[in-house]
Amino acid sequence: MGCDLVRVLPVALLSAAAVALGADPTFLQRSIGATPPRADDLTRGAKGASYRPLFGAGDPQARSLKSIARYGELTVDPGGASAVVRYPAEEQIYFILSGAGEVTCDGAHVPVKANDFLYLPPGSGHTVANGSTEPLRLLVMGFRIPKGAAVAPAKHLMIANTADVPLQVLPGHGPTAKFKLLMGTTESTRDKLAAASQMVSLFLMDFAPGGTNIPHHHETEEEIYFVLKGSGDMVAGGGMDGNEGRHATKQGDAWFLRLNTTVGFYSGAQPGREHDQVLAVRSSFPFPRGRRP
Q: What's the CATH class of domain 35-144?
């Protein structure tokens, strides 16, 4: 695709260069395997809990994210539990990567297992416990509630599993990528859970061998792609020659895309092999009042 210069320079170097120039990077890339655990609200005083901050709180470039407060992997060991946390100006989503356990939210106790996703409203006190014999791993996603925004309290803890959401083809994204629409805002009529305020869309993409999420951009939203299964090429911004910037990516990689950044994915799966899967989330950019496009 004529992006040789971008392929030669490491992603981290490109991001560092953008920061050195005093500008927010167009995109950031992290990998769970290369991100060390760090102290966090979720682990303070907790037993058997560790947190790897991929983006937002705990990450050196946290200020580059405007609508997203945090995004990382929480691991709770057998017999362990995370700290009770409460964020008055932040709504959160948990996505269970592997294992089983229990989430407690304002006194409500719900069992969780792999591929469950749930909404935790702002101001709620919540914790995760693991009574099983295997580690429990989950993605923690937090989204800032702007000052003055009113968020109606949830009537109950909202939870579902990806197995209960049908795959579908969406207009404009090509026939080789199918989508599971997991969660949207409270006004959503198409997502499994209509739950959120600032988080606009949580969805899973399933790629046939050679499948593509056609490169596109969002003018009013930030976005994160997380490679759940497989490998391929991530499109993140433009290359040095003006074409789309393609970067090799694999399971466990996460990509943050600033608004108006070109984003897409090219599957690396071979015929007869397991499909590649990407979990993506978008959230509304906090434009100053009167300046929203």
A: mainly beta
From edge to edge, which strands make up the β-sheet containing 193-196? 27-31, 253-257, 221-229, 276-284, 199-207, 177-185, 193-196
pTM of the predicted model over 0.85: yes
Same topology between domain 1-33+165-286 and domain 35-144 = yes
* Cβ(136)–Cβ(95) below 8 Å: no
14-18, 34-38, 70-74, 175-179: lowest mean pLDDT where?
A: 14-18
> Which CATH architecture does the domain made up of 1-33+165-286 adopt?
Sandwich (2.60)
At 65-117, the pLDDT tens digits run 999 999 999 999 999 999 999 999 999 999 999 999 999 999 999 999 999 99
Biggest CA-to-CA distance, the chain: 55
Instruction: Find out whether 123 and 80 touch, Cβ atoms under 8 Å.
Output: no
**Tens digits of per-residue pLDDT, 241-272?**
567 899 999 999 999 999 999 999 999 988 88
